[in-house]
Amino acid sequence: MKLIEGREVAKALRKQTPSIAEALRARGVNPTLAVVVPTDDEGTAWYVRSIARAADRVGVNCRIEQLAQPDHDDLVAKLEALSADENVHGIICQTPLPENVKLADVAAHIAPSKDVDGANPMSLGRLAAGLETFAPATAEAVMVLFEAIGFNLDGKDITMVGRSTVVGTPAALLMLDHGATVTICHRQTVDLEAECRTADAVVVAAGAPGLITAKHLKPGAIVIDVGTTPTEDGQLVGDVDFESASEVAGAITPVPGGVGPVTTQLLLRNTVVAAQRQNPA
Amino acid sequence: MKLIEGREVAKALRKQTPSIAEALRARGVNPTLAVVVPTDDEGTAWYVRSIARAADRVGVNCRIEQLAQPDHDDLVAKLEALSADENVHGIICQTPLPENVKLADVAAHIAPSKDVDGANPMSLGRLAAGLETFAPATAEAVMVLFEAIGFNLDGKDITMVGRSTVVGTPAALLMLDHGATVTICHRQTVDLEAECRTADAVVVAAGAPGLITAKHLKPGAIVIDVGTTPTEDGQLVGDVDFESASEVAGAITPVPGGVGPVTTQLLLRNTVVAAQRQNPA
Q: Which helix (H) or strand (E) holds A30?
């Protein structure tokens, strides 16, 4: 069983960003990612600090916009102001959101050119239509990890567990676009084991620790674990029962150290790419 | 084997539209569907005439906008003008499009409120995100036909053959949203028989006559045939080998007389709904 080292993949991605950032600054453009934080949730705060640190290391300016108990209109106003601000090149909106607010609804107010985490429904629609767009960074990270281990999706059977707007659905669309036959499962799926056991790879983004075990896997299957559930002692656990699954799988991403670090680097790379497009030489 | 009579389902849908159209006209609003025709293809002309006849029967005004060899910019200009025209409530753009023009690219210029065939990537993205929107009428027709025969998708295994922006992808998203576990196949799928044979229902939109036979079906499976390939003698044939499949299937839509008439009625219903929303009482 091969461990898919997300941190190593992230390191390789991290090499490209600083020189682009540097070239932008030489032209007077300070590549800036705005992170809108509509919650005082501790897990979110931890993640936002980790983005800020990672941004700092690659020369991207991270502007944290903490909002105190915003409602729908406050969030829309903030996202529209950042979309109009020429000193901001990428915008992401953290979750959890206030009650009754849907991410896709407010994210429709992120300018598509700055939508570096593909949260605007227009970005998702362009992805579904095969047009150029920023994909949600987590979904893109899944593709980067497949590529890193030399797994070619063309003609492969992939089971995607989870149908969320931010991971499951866009990851399925990207895998389809790369030639995979994709089965999308979720909590209404009756026989998850059967749906997974025929797959060449299983991607799981269900937020259900231990959901995927050896019983779900064909020998040699690739397993990408997108789950990140916080434990009481402040750790993160994935959706895969690693010990059990590793007896059968061909390769697995660990949690932490799998999808997460790659996602962060893709957000930062997307930010410098967005800054380049907004400021052609 | 039950024949799924699309014409009967369409008749039922047709009952609701005239009274809405009538009520709109009583308020001075003439519900109007603009059909942009960028081709002189004979099959397209035939289909456009059939929409115009159906519109006439339910009291919807059909404005046909024939364009002679338009390029990308001509199409965008026309769609933007119709989007701005308050006497137009629904807009559809026929295919085939001029070479190198993508439907999703030009359809991004259809106002979402008038996008009665869900062709704007924003509509597809909103569909993927579970937000209210007009779905592509053909994809919606698949759902209406399932409902007409009392087939509840919750927990069912469905195989979708085809991943196009106008049918396969949106139909898969709608079926997922209704609780089905969905496998999406296409021309890179290695073993189509195996992917179909476990499914409770097979929806096929591949444009490949005779693709689906008895060998692809579990006994009793529901088959929805979205294919419409014109034959040399001016008929339409679907993607299902009807004679073979009908020995195994539980129910099948015929071609013609299955998905097509339902799609047309949904376009017209969407047009009067759009007109209502644009002209609140």
A: none
